[in-house]
Design brief:
The complex is a heterodimer of chains A (606) and B (362). Chain A is α/β, with parallel strands linked by helices and 606 residues long. In chain A, 48% of the residues lie in helices and 12% in strands. The longest helix of chain A has 24 residues. In chain B, helix 4 crosses helix 7, helix 4 runs parallel beside helix 8 and helix 5 runs parallel beside helix 7. The chains are: A alpha/beta (606), B alpha/beta (362). The interface between A and B is large, with 37 and 43 residues.
Chain lengths: 606, 362
């Protein structure tokens, strides 16, 4: 590499520190540098460039009123004098971007954050490859590397007894949800369906186990009143949108130097077309995975409809066609979670998600009963089958503990989570623990977050780690009840919670958009970008810094572990898991948990 | 038969309507079936202005348009294009590529930003069949217009809020570009044309003999010292490079005899970085004294477009907002003194402008 003569031109009277740093790097690399004094008239600089016969000219200037014109004129002068073509001309400064450099006629533009290496590459005429361009994202298997072995013998023993108890109780029981899942499993062939082949045998059998909503649809073609089919034009433009976006999309990485946590983002505007737009934005701003949200009535209905349907309220209806179109719009690297956790279609959701190609699902019997309104007996029977199908389709599932938001203390919610987890392990599944990182009623009353949000959330993770070696995915979303309608506050809070999760070494986080709790309608695209950017910045800020343990964390960790142990002991003593749910051992009315009534008396004995 | 042409669209400042002019010309020639090659010496088609943050007109292009832009711009474009060739020319936004639009849509252009690269691009676009090349300018940049067959200047409130000042400036520009003649017609003896091959600024006597020569570009009045010694014998001067306002003023002070012939390389070299009033006054004075003025290369100013829009800075919020001056008055004042055709491109259809700049032959 030949030695270059570099003229450094501080057009800015004040800000030439960047040039000085670059000068040092260039000197160290053996180049000849000449730093001009600041604030010389443009004509004189041009004369100097001609006189010095420099190879490279680096100008630093902060943008301000009229400065763009001044710089353009400077470049014009170099061009007219005939030296422009034989020099490398770069500009750096605040607010300088490559677009602006192109507009002003420079060969390169260096904004804040430019490295000396970047400037050196420019001077030496080497191609500088941005780190972000090297990233190739692959789907990650979250459960990989976990043994699912227990670290707490007492809890392990109790969980084993409870799992036996549940499996024995359910051995001779079924439900319409279980039946539909079996029919979907046996008679619904995704390839035949994709080829528009007749599936009469499936429909005839399936509708027998649906409620009126499903029956009306399959027999009379009547849709749910708040849904409609997409028009042909809408479908064409949706396909066109996906195609065009896929042509150009680039997938960045948010984790900086870490390999985890993966970052998940939720979608579910009601309109699958808009969802696809949201998903593409999430992907383009670095989300590793997306989570499908269906409407609340989806959990209360027996059976799924079909068709490419849009819903006029929150939540995107689960139909084979909706899932299929969303699946087709996803980038290869994007993990896709279809939630099955909480309603009358739980096992069938997993069969459908598995056949259409989801990567992850969500199941929690305790939360489905206590926070989401499904009858405990029904949820238990359906939950077991859901787990069996999740194992069959190799869908790892998170075990969410949203009952904490109702007011159930963490230790009780965790006891319920660990029971579903133990059941999952027994049935060959890959459960993922999903504690909440939230400002729950428990801490509002108990004062655990009076000073900070760090210690109690950290204690939760530490408690789970003391019990079992399993993947952990705080959610969903992190920072629940700490965010407000102020998008800046909301993004900052999300970023802090996600960063805390990263420092604790968890496997994934789900984050909300900055307007998620307050949008009063579909969340907006900018608000999705807000939190993805904020989280990326948080990960950048903390890098691989670990979180130090505090005495308070250890106290709360131990309280949670012993609390879990005592709840499990009560269930063992009661010797009936379903009754324990009805009776509030895993969360009672005082805690804000009410056993659900959807699907009551629908469990039948075979 | 129409003759292939390269037309530049320059602006006196940002937001004077370069992109709007480009858009209406693209539309017009598309309907006439003319194959257009488009490139930009700046960065066009962006959503927001890089300086003011105000929304800008997006560049909508149709099938068949040939375009030269930087690789990275294609990622930000919704039009689908097929890349025909990579030119290997570096820009801050990646290498330049020549492409043809296959599906209409929005596009962002950032092309060659040096004159000699524009030459390469121009030749390439002609080779791919362009009949007319449109070079979208960049804020206040005019140097690359040297490679065009003529240019349009977009001006307006964004340059100066006072429409009289806009008109004066347009007048100076038109006079500087269009008044001097082609140098060849001014030389007493056709053999003297070799004087114009000089890489130095030269003065000659009545026999066409070079009496003195100095640097190519005249940046500093001191460079002209040696011309004083010969002032009474000098009959002609040729400057192949840039000449600054200060040097032009100095040149006016040298007691050359009447009936001189002043030849400059091209109008661009009298415009860049200079006070146009001084340049204009110099040209007027020497002409009144009976001297002749010429350019080695003519680059006509073909038309002026005016735009009443300007970004108004708001001190209270530190950002810009959309504002306008009186558009009727602006058009009238510029038309009355500019001496070239003037159009309000937002208001008028561009048919008349298009006819002036290129005979479609169709």
């Amino acid at each position: 590499m030949s030695r270059k003569k570099v003229l450094l031109v501080p057009l800015d009277p004040v800000h030439d520190v960047g040039l000085k740093m670059i000068r040092r790097g260039l000197d160290d690399a053996g180049h000849e540098t000449i730093l001009l004094p600041p604030d010389i008239p443009v004509h004189e600089i041009v004369q100097e460039i001609v006189k010095q016969r420099a190879d490279t000219v680096l100008v630093s200037r902060t943008l301000g009123y009229g400065v763009a014109e001044l710089l353009a004129n400077f470049v014009d002068l170099l061009d007219v004098v005939g030296v422009r073509s034989r020099i490398n001309l770069g500009i750096g400064g605040m607010a300088i971007r490559p677009e602006l450099a192109a507009e002003l006629g420079f060969d390169a533009g260096f904004g804040p954050g430019t490295t000396v290496e970047e400037a050196l590459a420019f001077v030496e005429g080497r191609e500088y490859v941005e780190a972000s361009q090297k990233i190739v994202k692959n789907k990650k298997e979250m459960a990989e590397g976990y043994s699912y072995s227990y670290r707490h013998e007492g809890i392990q023993a109790k969980l084993n007894l409870i799992v036996d108890m549940i499996l024995n109780w359910a051995a001779n029981k079924t439900s319409p949800g279980v039946q539909r899942a079996a029919i979907r499993e046996e008679l619904w062939d995704v390839n035949r369906w994709r080829n528009y082949e007749s599936m009469t045998d499936f429909y005839n059998e399936y509708k027998l186990y649906c409620d009126d909503l499903g029956k009306n649809y399959y027999e009379k073609g009547i849709l749910h009143p708040k849904t409609r089919r997409f028009t042909k034009e809408e479908i064409i433009s949706s396909e066109e949108y996906v195609r065009r976006t896929q042509e150009v999309i680039k997938i960045p990485k948010l984790q900086h130097n870490r390999t985890k946590p993966l970052v998940f983002n939720q979608y579910g505007t009601g309109c699958p077309f808009m969802d696809i737009g949201h998903i593409k934005v999430s992907e383009a701003w670095g989300a590793d995975g997306v989570v499908h949200f269906d409407p609340s009535w989806g959990a209360r209905s027996e059976g799924f409809l079909d068709g490419f349907l849009t819903h006029q309220e929150d939540g995107t209806v689960i139909t084979p066609a909706n899932l299929n179109r969303i699946k087709r719009a996803l980038e290869k690297s994007t993990l896709w979670q279809v939630r099955a956790h909480r309603g009358l279609n739980t096992p069938e959701t997993i069969v459908l998600a598995g056949k259409i190609g989801a990567d992850l699902t969500k199941i929690n019997i305790a939360y489905g009963c206590l926070g989401a309104g499904t009858d405990p007996a029904r949820m238990t029977v359906d939950g077991i089958w859901a787990i069996r199908y999740a194992a069959k389709y190799n869908l790892p599932f998170d075990v969410v503990t949203n009952e904490e938001l109702c007011g159930v203390p963490a230790y009780k919610a965790f006891a319920g989570m660990l029971i579903t987890t133990a059941l999952g392990i027994r049935l060959g599944g890959k459960p993922i623990l999903q504690p909440l990182f939230c400002k729950s009623p428990e801490v509002m009353v108990g004062g655990q977050m009076k000073d900070n949000y760090v210690e109690f959330n950290a204690a939760k993770i530490m408690a789970l780690r003391q019990i079992i070696d399993a993947p952990i995915w705080p959610g969903a979303p992190v920072g629940f009840l700490t965010q407000t309608e102020d998008r800046v506050q909301s993004s900052a809070s999300t970023a802090f919670h996600a960063s805390l999760a990263a420092m604790l070494g968890v496997d994934a986080v789900t984050i909300a958009s900055s307007d998620e709790a307050y949008s009063g309608g579909p969340i907006s695209v900018p608000s999705k970008i807000d939190t993805l950017r904020a989280v990326g910045e948080g990960f950048r800020f903390f890098g691989q810094t670990p979180l130090a343990s505090t005495p308070q964390m250890e106290v709360w960790r131990d309280t949670i572990v012993s609390g879990i142990d005592s709840v499990l002991a009560k269930i063992v003593e009661r010797d009936d898991f379903v009754q324990s749910l009805y009776e509030g051992i895993l969360g009672n009315r005082e805690d804000g948990a009410y056993p659900g009534r959807n699907g009551k008396d629908t469990v039948t004995t075979i | 038969m129409n003759i292939r042409k390269t037309i530049g669209i320059a602006g006196t400042a940002k937001n004077t309507g370069k992109t709007t002019t480009t858009l209406s010309l693209l539309d017009y020639y598309y309907t006439k079936g003319v194959t257009i090659g488009l490139t930009s010496i700046g960065y066009d088609g962006e959503t927001m202005d890089n300086v003011t943050g105000l929304p800008k007109p997006r560049l909508f292009v149709r099938k068949g348009l040939l375009i030269v832009t930087a690789e990275k711009c294609l990622q930000a474009s919704s039009a689908k294009v097929k890349i025909l060739e990579n030119l290997g020319i570096n820009t801050p936004l990646g290498k330049l590529v020549c492409a043809v639009v296959e599906r209409e849509g929005l596009i962002v252009t950032a092309g060659p930003n040096q004159s000699h690269h524009l030459r390469t691009v121009r030749d390439l676009l002609f080779r791919y069949g362009a009949e007319l090349i449109i070079v979208d300018g960049a804020l206040g940049r005019i140097a690359p217009m040297i490679e065009t067959d003529g240019f349009i200047m977009a001006t307006g409130a964004s340059y100066k809020l006072d429409s009289y000042q806009v008109a004066r400036h347009a007048h100076y520009l038109a006079e500087i570009c269009n008044y001097p003649q082609s140098a060849k017609d001014l030389l007493k003896d056709p053999a003297w044309v070799k004087l114009l091959d000089s890489r130095a600024t030269v003065v000659w006597n009545s026999l066409g003999e070079i009496l003195a020569e100095v640097d190519e570009s005249l940046l500093n009045p001191e460079q002209l010292g040696s011309f004083y010694n010969h002032s009474s014998d000098v009959r002609g001067l040729y400057c192949p490079g840039l000449i600054t306002t200060q040097c032009l003023q100095k040149l006016g002070e040298i007691p050359f005899s009447r009936g001189m012939t002043y030849i400059f390389s091209d109008p661009i070299k009298l415009i860049v970085g200079n006070d146009l009033k001084v340049t204009h006054d110099f040209l007027t004075t020497v002409q009144q004294e009976g001297s002749a003025l010429g350019y080695k290369q003519m680059i006509p100013l073909m038309a002026i477009t005016v735009n009443p829009f300007y970004p108004k800075y708001r001190y209270e919020s530190g950002n810009y907002e959309t504002a306008y001056i009186d558009k009727g008055q602006l058009l009238e004042e510029v038309t009355s003194i500019a001496n070239v055709p003037v159009f309000d491109i937002v208001q008028d259809s561009c048919t008349n402008l298009a006819k002036i700049i290129f005979d479609t032959g169709k």
